[in-house]
């Protein structure tokens, strides 16, 4: 459980930072928000997080595009059922594809674009009540570490944005960042390094 929590949290932080480097105006807006809320203090603290609405929308957008566990924990049906016209017999192992749900064009305009603003005036959240965004699953079998993970991710991201100015090394273009995902238990970038200075 601890390994799953640390690997998935670090993976989503890497994805969010990569998206921010690819979208410098979003990063600038987030840094401005964080620095205004913190007002000259050395680090972002837990009591600042509730005031960082844009940062929270960045985390939601990162989770939408890059859920840490794209195929949620498998479930087994207890009874025969039908989903969208497909018959699923009892005792069938079912995987929920959180990645496909988070990029379904039926619910998301510009589904593959990193646009945190979509969450600023939206009630859609990742806590299992809105089925168009399920990075942690839903119901009684949802991720037990969700609240802890979100706090850690928001706090780490806020401090990274507060303390450092991020940019790509000279000669590397944003379009050159490899955003292809590697296949595995949780979502990681194919390239294990993210160049920054």
From TrEMBL:
It comes from the Eukaryota. Coiled coil: none annotated. The keyword Oxidoreductase applies. Heme binds at residue 143. Keywords: Heme, Iron, Metal-binding, Monooxygenase, Oxidoreductase. Its cofactor is heme. One of its GO terms (molecular function) is oxidoreductase activity, acting on paired donors, with incorporation or reduction of molecular oxygen. PROSITE patterns: CYTOCHROME_P450. Belongs to the cytochrome P450 family. This is Uncharacterized protein. It comes from Quercus lobata. The gene is LOC115982596.
């Amino acid at each position: 459980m601890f390994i799953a929590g640390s690997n998935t949290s670090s993976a989503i932080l890497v994805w969010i930072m990569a998206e921010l480097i690819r979208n410098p105006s979003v990063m600038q807006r987030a840094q401005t928000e964080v620095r205004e809320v913190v007002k000259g203090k050395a680090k972002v603290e837990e009591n600042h997080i509730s005031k960082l609405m844009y940062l929270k929308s960045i985390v939601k957008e990162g989770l939408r595009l890059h859920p840490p566990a794209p195929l949620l924990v498998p479930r087994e049906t207890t009874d025969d059922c039908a989903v969208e016209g497909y018959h699923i017999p009892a005792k069938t192992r079912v995987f929920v594809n959180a990645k496909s749900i988070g990029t379904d064009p039926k619910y998301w305009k510009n589904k593959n674009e990193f646009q945190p603003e979509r969450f600023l005036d939206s009630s859609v959240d990742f806590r299992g009540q809105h089925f168009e965004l399920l990075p942690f699953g839903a119901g009684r079998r949802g991720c037990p570490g969700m609240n802890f993970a979100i706090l850690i991710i928001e706090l780490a991201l806020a401090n990274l944005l507060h303390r450092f100015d991020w940019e790509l090394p000279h000669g590397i273009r944003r379009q050159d960042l490899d955003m292809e995902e590697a296949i595995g238990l949780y979502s990681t970038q194919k390239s294990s390094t993210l160049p920054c200075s």
